[in-house]
Structure prediction request, 588 residues.
Amino acid sequence: RRVHGEIRSMDAVDSVVYCVECQDTPANKTCNQCENDPFCNLCFSWLHRTGNRASHQTAPIKGQEDRVNVGTTEYFVRRQNAGPTMTPEEAAAAADEEAERQAALSNQHANTVGAAVAWTPARAHWIPLRFSEEERALFHVLEGALEVSEYTDNVDVTNMYGWRYDYDGNSKRVEKELADILHIVSGLAICADWQNGSNLVEGRTLNANGEFFGRVFELGRRFKIMNPDKMRSNYGKLVWMLMDACQAFAQKRLSINLRIPIVSVEMYLQKHNAVDLLRDPLLPVAINPLPVATPEAKAIKATARQQLITRYAACCAAASDDEGAAPQPIGEAGIERCINSISDNASFIASNAGPVRRMMAIMMEHYTIDGPMDDRSLAIRNGVEGSHLSHSHATQFTFCLQTFQLWCEVVDNFFELWFLAEMDLCSGHYSLRDTGQGLNRVQPAPHIGQAMSKILNRVHNKCGSWIGLSVVHLGDRDVPNALVFIDKYTQVSRILAPVVHVLESVDRLFADPALHTYLAQEFHNAERLRYLILGDFLRHGFDGSGSDGGSCIDGRLTSAWNWCSKLEKKRYYHVFLLAGFQGFDGKF
Prediction:
């Protein structure tokens, strides 16, 4: 259905007036001087903030004065402005959860990594289970099917730019493309395992194999959460298929549920009555990566793992999946699989939050909030050297520190956020629209919004005050849907890791006889070069620049990316190359 120049999902029923600017939020008011154009509060405030427009008068839209889509930027702003909305019981539970988290962090084993994961049993709910050998073979089947699929071209591009916009035409096209991908999966399953694959196809319809298809799609979703840097194009096709398969018309015509719960460590252990493993005091010792892999530390970790495997291998499910068969114990391989899955999560957090924490440490080592008043000051001015913000040294120092603390919190809860992003993507209607960044599916993200609100509150409490806007863009032109949101934060370590690596390599470069003379002529000494790189990054990596920059939560990441795009023009770019820099998408 075409509404305000966009295509809305086929099940959507639009009986409201939408904002003329963002076109995905119900309008609350009309502007008398702008030909009575309808606006939501956020767009009206932004477009009428300066000049003659600031004096424009508005009239409320009857019946829509307080209407707003849950999970959009407008909803998030209202929620933040309203302050805490938790009941006393919810607040007490949140306080207990935070106390447990801090206690877990302080009680980590001496031989685990310095910035160890604050392990609590609740984390296992969001940790996907590692593949078995059988599951890995099925995943390769899905991967091959996605590789040859042109789903997004045949559905989204045709819907937006084609000549047919009628309900029946669009729904039939989606139905056909979904059936095609399921047939491809069936064919590749036969190629991978002739006996089992042929049993799926011979004399059976797609509906009869619904459980198999749901399981195969679950493997792709599970793999992506475990490996955010993989499936960078195929995962988008997978999620778009799930979004359409969850629509009512697809459920009615295909009668296949492709979105089954992702198998987590907690789910697997509960099934085998081995959930006590999550509360065992040896588990943090067995899962956290080692800062220095000394023989003694490795032996302690290996001993803890073996004791856990021996202790819980005999745990057994109450009933067997196979009717009439006796339930089997989880076994040593099952416990080891769970420990490895949790260890993968700990390693991911350590490797992705590590650059953020190291950057914070470097900043705190070289700058203070009172700071230097000379050329090393972090002060910036709007319009000077591309900056879009005006901050004193103390304000910019606090602004950067808050940003790093926020990114640490996001990375620490990254797997949970990815689970919630999938819930948002597959639980509602969407509109197909050209947002200026290409063709995107615009959709609210209420679960992500609620989670980010909690994360922001934790960071606020740590910082005491807040610099800039605490707005998270969701379901608008800047961040159309939850997939775009979660993908943006996979870039945090890619931005910071090479910068940290160069800063830590400055002394080594100056100590190299082949480079010392050249570097000394250009930058005088290692300290001056380090301040040059660090100061420039802290000033102009967080100056509100970029196409959708600013001081909001997402604008900080955009500004950092904007700085990265200009690195080749920096005076010290060749220092990055000498330190081994290959790009912000490589290995560091």
